[in-house]
Amino acid sequence: MSAHPDAGTQFARVADELRATTFRKDIVVREITSPAGLAPFSIALAADVRPDENGDSVYGTGRFVLLHDPEEPQAWGGAWRIVVFAQAPLEPEIGTDPLLADVTWSWLIDALDSRDAGYHSASGTSTKTISKGFGSLAAEGDGAQIELRSSWTPDEPFRPHVEAWAELVGMLAGLPPGSENIAVFGARKAGRD
Length: 193
Known about the structure:
24% of the residues lie in helices and 32% in strands. By secondary structure, it is of the alpha+beta class. Helix 3 packs antiparallel against helix 4. This is DUF3000 family protein.
């Protein structure tokens, strides 16, 4: 018998809450297979910004994973942990901005704070990449990309956390809050990763 017999029921309630979240129309969110072995319970979501008819996005993408371990791993500081990823291509000039990584992290914190999404033990990396094609890739030209990987221990309720993640994905892709159905300038084809 499990030391936490109601953990599955509690997780199912939270997973249903996340599945019922409504996102802006130009960010398509779907449930995907959770990474194995990270926690006894997990749910994973993927987001694509304004995907084409094939489901591909030239604007940006993201992943959201909610983990639950009733044993409360010491590194988490609680029974729940959120792990997120968000990525977007950029114009090369933007990619060289020395404050880009700091701004990206601040957008996540601002999105969480604006929704009163309580959390602690946050950590993460913001990575900017500049690339130049050669040989058969020379025609693609220069490129840049921003990527944020982060995790934190959330307080309930959990819906504000997934909403903040979706806002971050949109912000990285050039979609500030309230910009649905407005053209995005400077979108680059994601030719290289």
